[in-house]
Amino acid sequence: RIMRPDDANIAGNVHGGTILKMIEEAGAIISTRHCNSQTGEPCVAALARVERTDFLSPMCIGEVANVSAEITYTSRHSVEVQVNVMSENILTGAKKLTNKATLWYVPLSLKNVNKVLEVPPIQYTRKEQEDEGKKRYEEQKLDRLETKQRNGDVIFPIINPEPHTVGYSQSSLIHLVGPSDCTLLGFVHGGVTMKLMDEVAGIVAARHCKTNIVTASVDAINFHEKIKKGCVITISGRMTFTSNKSMEIEVFVDADPFVDEPRERYRAVSAFFTYVSLSKEGKPLPVPQLLTETEDEKRRFEEGKGRYLQTKAKRQAQMQQAAQ
Amino acid sequence: RIMRPDDANIAGNVHGGTILKMIEEAGAIISTRHCNSQTGEPCVAALARVERTDFLSPMCIGEVANVSAEITYTSRHSVEVQVNVMSENILTGAKKLTNKATLWYVPLSLKNVNKVLEVPPIQYTRKEQEDEGKKRYEEQKLDRLETKQRNGDVIFPIINPEPHTVGYSQSSLIHLVGPSDCTLLGFVHGGVTMKLMDEVAGIVAARHCKTNIVTASVDAINFHEKIKKGCVITISGRMTFTSNKSMEIEVFVDADPFVDEPRERYRAVSAFFTYVSLSKEGKPLPVPQLLTETEDEKRRFEEGKGRYLQTKAKRQAQMQQAAQ
Amino acid sequence: RIMRPDDANIAGNVHGGTILKMIEEAGAIISTRHCNSQTGEPCVAALARVERTDFLSPMCIGEVANVSAEITYTSRHSVEVQVNVMSENILTGAKKLTNKATLWYVPLSLKNVNKVLEVPPIQYTRKEQEDEGKKRYEEQKLDRLETKQRNGDVIFPIINPEPHTVGYSQSSLIHLVGPSDCTLLGFVHGGVTMKLMDEVAGIVAARHCKTNIVTASVDAINFHEKIKKGCVITISGRMTFTSNKSMEIEVFVDADPFVDEPRERYRAVSAFFTYVSLSKEGKPLPVPQLLTETEDEKRRFEEGKGRYLQTKAKRQAQMQQAAQ
Question: Which residues form the active site (chains A, B, C) (predicted)?
Fold first, then answer.
């Protein structure tokens, strides 16, 4: 579809969150269709996880986004979908790859939302495809278990923070979940959640460096808990790490189901977003360094540095592999 | 209501689809109100057909759209509504007629969506009004039957197409039907469908001529099949004909009800949109000619030429009549 | 959240209606949460009244709106919420108070929408807080009764009105209530209604003075009757009074529940909006005087003048108090 003014920031760059939302919609459609392709209980595919994804080039207002999706692996209860986003300038005809993402879905019964159904297996053209898919499946399963444990942190407001400290740029946003945010099952679309997360992360980044900022990448996001219609969700973000030209922001989504079936507020999702700062000509700018104060802040900074160096090493390895 | 940035293209011209959506909303309100005016089963009026309509002058961001609707004929099971759209520049006070449209609605029972109810008859001030309305009713009934039969065509993707061929500009868009797209009966508003059709047609036109394009007219659209909440709809468009200064684009809407009540994908709507290309000063530009390759493309080009010449002849006859 | 192009007028000033909608959403969340904090029947808080509120400084596209809400008084069946809106320019870090509003909510049972539930009492830190709250509660109760009685007026269209008369600028807008306009109970959010009211009042003001206009204040709004999903609402506005630099516009909301449970059209809400006209540099401009023609128009002008002088006197008293 064509990118509209509301999809973009003041500089005309389309929000990463808008792109994540389109990706998730495409993934939900193809996996729901696949899981209903055999006669049996009707179901809706719910997003369980998005693998780390990079935003390769910014998209602008007036460009057309082409989203294509393909099922690349099925386990007994989950579907792996590969989604590609191309941006096309329809006036010049130029096309660019904007984004590649891998998503995992789980089919939930339309009649009983707590029942996970079986996924019809796909046919692989080569045996290696199945083996590689199985490897990816095992890896993500492990990672899901790990993140489930570190999900307990809370962000408190800070009075009169100094510029460039963590407290200075931390931000939060509250949203009441309405019908247009939800699937047929009455739960929030994963894509809606990711769009709000990107919005908060973008506010944190802009408060820190006070320039035009864009989403560079999003780390793997795990959706541990569904969020029901009528909940209030609080999305909060804080900066964890800065390199010379990038900022890492941790975002939490907490759901508060205060109506209907009262239950404690709970952590539904958490993720790391990486942003870069751009000059008016679209060149990356140096980023002011994050000032860490508490022990926790220093520890998170080191952990962020670890992720940053790991990603950098992985990318260099890929480039060498590609060059061979 | 006031036209917003998201209602318009980059050049500030309001999308034809936004106007069609407003027209349909006005038509649905007046005919639903009329059909519920007698005590009896409550119902919702569903759009069955929109007659050919011309966009007389472009509307811009910041202008106010005044939509007025009037019931002009009732048959036993259908209502004809005439809708006028005036654009008003509230700063200068200038008003222009933007659009005149004729729509047909059918009342469906709120309790049983497959039951068509009876329409309370309206009073005519002159006997001729009733006779002319009856004539229009018979004509549209005939046309509905005809289009139902040619509804089988499918658009396939083409690899590496040459510029200005049919394959080069053909486009499609996928949309998951959500609650805010639907009426009280849980079916997609006709206006929502038309807005998406105009979006795809606009992308086809822009890809072909790579300039600022606007909707000039829409041929009669028949809504043969309802589209239910939770469906995925695929809207696809291809260019069929070019004159010196206009492009005709055929648009198909296919619905895929993959959840809940599995059923084959089916053609719900099809229509022809005519676009013109505008210079920066808003003057019509010459259009690159469409290169037809296959026999089918040549046949469709000739058919499009036939429609173009027929419309031109009709318009000249009307102008001569008006001049007498 | 960040202000988007669709939230603002052509000059980039965020619509007062967008701000009112955010305020109401925050109020609805905090009071619904409070009313569900004790075990008992689940409920949704419905907006009963908004006290008079001033727009202290305009907000612009790209700024972040910070909305904070606090419960300041509870009676047996109602909750008073104080909401503050700060606008923040995230590039410069500058913050300004945009708006302060006081709202009253009533908890309605999720199982039986006509049943008003009891509100858990809040703890006051000082006895005076409770007494002042009780005084505000009694005052608004009285005012609600009064406005319920003058709720009968209707706006008729006028043919060929002269510039600057009441008939010249009066306007109305029709809206079909869809699912995304509604709460969990299936009734229109008060904030949605206020946004539409501000849109109509803005069209009346722009038609009268043909310049860039912004909302300066909104008088107390009482929500006497709920509006159900599927209703058509007609929002109509007419100018009642002009001072040198401000315009007062009266806005009515009428609901027409034509489907499902047929009932007469009824007046749901009415309110007074005050607008000012701004130059390109954002300075207030003189306003063309309203030409009153009928006896009713002259009477309403005098009443408007009364409200204007009363507000002016109150503001001067507050400023003197603040200066002491």
Answer: 9, 198
* Average pLDDT of the residues in B146-168: 78
Q: Could you read off the pLDDT of C228-263 as tens digits, one per residue? A: 888 888 899 999 999 999 999 999 999 988 776 667
Give the domain range for residue C41.
Answer: 2-146
B201 confidence band (pLDDT: 50, 70, 90): very high
B185 CA: distance to closest CA in chain C (Å) = 10
Same domain as C132, residue C176: no
Name the burial class of residue A144, with classes exposed (0-12), middle (13-18) and buried (19+) by CB atoms within 10 angstroms of its CB.
Answer: middle
Residue A149 confidence (pLDDT): 59
Q: Give the contacts of A117 (CB within 8 A, at least 6 positions apart).
A: A35, A40, A41, A43, A77, A107, A108, A109
pLDDT greater than 80 at residue C163: yes
Same domain, A200 and A120: no
- Residue to mutate among B33, B34, B90, with most C CBs inside 10 A, is B90
Q: Check whether residue C195 and residue C141 sit in a common domain.
A: no
Note whether A48 and A133 are same-domain residues: yes
Of the candidates A243, A253, A252, the one whose C-alpha atom is nearest the C-alpha of residue A302 is: A243
> Is the ipTM, as predicted for this complex, more than 0.85?
no
* Same domain? C27 vs C72: yes
Number of domains into which chain C is organized: 2
The answer to the question of residue C108 being in a domain is yes
Among the candidates B118, B146, B174, a domain finishes at B146
The string of pLDDT tens digits covering residues A21-47 is 999 999 998 999 899 888 778 888 999
**A205 to each of A2, A210, A302, C295, how far by Cα in Å?**
27, 8, 19, 59
pLDDT at C152 over 70: no
Look at residue B236 and tell me if it is in a domain. yes
Quote the pTM value.
0.80
**Pick from B8, C323, B265: which is nearest to A29 by CA?**
B265
Q: Is B96 on the interface with A (CB under 8 A)?
A: no
What is the domain-level CATH number for residue C305?
A: 3.10.129.10
C32 with A258: Cβ contact below 8 A: yes
| CB-based contact B258 A36, cutoff 8 Å | yes
C-beta atoms of B6 and C5 within 8 A: yes
Burial of A93 by CB count in 10 Å (0-12 exposed, 13-18 middle, 19+ buried)?
exposed
Amino acid at C270: S
The confidence score (pLDDT) of residue C60 equals 86
Which residues in chain B have Cβ-Cβ distances shorter than 8 Å to C6? 4-6
Helices and strands in chain C, H and E counts = 5, 11
Specify whether A99 is located in the same domain as A178.
Answer: no
Of A9, A66, A84, A151, which one is the catalytic site residue? A9
Residue in B closest to A183 by C-alpha? B178
Q: What's residue A262's pLDDT?
A: 63
Closest CA to C81 of C42, C136, C41, C7: C136
Q: Is C287 found in the same domain as C183? A: yes
Question: Closest by alpha carbon to A109, among A17, A46, A173, A34?
Answer: A46
Domain assignment of residue A161, yes or no: no
Each residue's pLDDT tens digit, B18-55: 999 999 989 998 999 899 887 778 888 999 999 999 89
Provide, as residue numbers in chain A, all residues whose Cβ is less than 8 Å from the Cβ of C107: none
Subunits with 3+ Cβ pairs within 8 Å of A are: B, C
DSSP A303: H
Q: Is the pLDDT score of B151 beyond 60?
A: no
* A229 lies within 8 A of chain C by CB: yes
Q: Which residue has the higher pLDDT, A232 or C215?
A: C215
Interface residue A36 vs chain B (CB under 8 A): yes
For the segment B153-177, the average pLDDT, to the nearest whole number, is 85
Q: Do C202 and B2 touch (CB under 8 A)?
A: yes
For residue B221, what are the CA distances in angstroms to B14, B218, B268, C215? 21, 8, 11, 42
Q: Is residue B161 part of a domain?
A: no
Same domain, C317 and C271: yes
Residue of C nearest to A212 (CA): C91
Question: Catalytic residue positions of B?
Answer: 9, 198
Residue ranges of chain A with per-residue pLDDT less than 70: 148-152, 260-262
Which residues in chain A have their CB less than 8 angstroms from residue C25's CB?
Answer: 176
